[in-house]
Amino acid sequence: QVQLQQSGPGLVRPSQTLSLTCAISGDSVSNNRATWNWIRQFPSRGLEWLGRTYFRSKWYNDYAPSVRSRITVNPDTSKNQFSLQLTSVTPEDTAVYYCVRDGYWGFWGQGTTVTVSS
Amino acid sequence: DVVMTQTPLSLSVTPGQPASISCKSSQSLLHSDGKTYLYWYLQKSGQPPQLLIYELSNRFSGVPDRFSGSGSGTDFTLKISRVEAEDVGFYYCMQTLHPPPTFGGGTKVEIK
What we know:
heterodimer, A: mainly beta, B: mainly beta, four-stranded antiparallel beta sheet, about 0% helix, globular
């Protein structure tokens, strides 16, 4: 059974960088049949896919156009985890952030509530 | 991006009665491999979305058989045959055929 455990701060100052980590158990970030995703949910309850990383003989990334200039999703094979970095945050980035494994799309992290405020 | 439109916005159901939620996509979700990449989730208060149905009509592990998914092309339905108190929350559809994955706006289900 895949389990995803998120960590990272819940409060980020405007213009700073949001950084979250998702630790994987029961699978490998290097699994060449999986992709590892970040999705966020706004206070309005709307859900937005942000980006992903995956390994297919080499590492690939895809990002949503809305955040492409500000986002990085990286794997960490030594710790079997992957991360999200979102730079230059504004209050509009306030949301609950989730890491998610594709396939059945049934494995989600517990969520991290991130508030962008001074 | 593919637009997912859910109706109704909210639903109030008597326990033991059926319920139905509709989801329409702006493009067909049928892949050439024969699968339809449409998913249904239930999000309970304070929790991440939990998968109910994957690839149109397959119940995820542990999901009661009172939940069923159906439809084709661009029109989909989630049915609950007999609503129970534990089924309250927000329901979402999601498509993954056309990147990026996109979600419906959600349907709130409450008990009368």
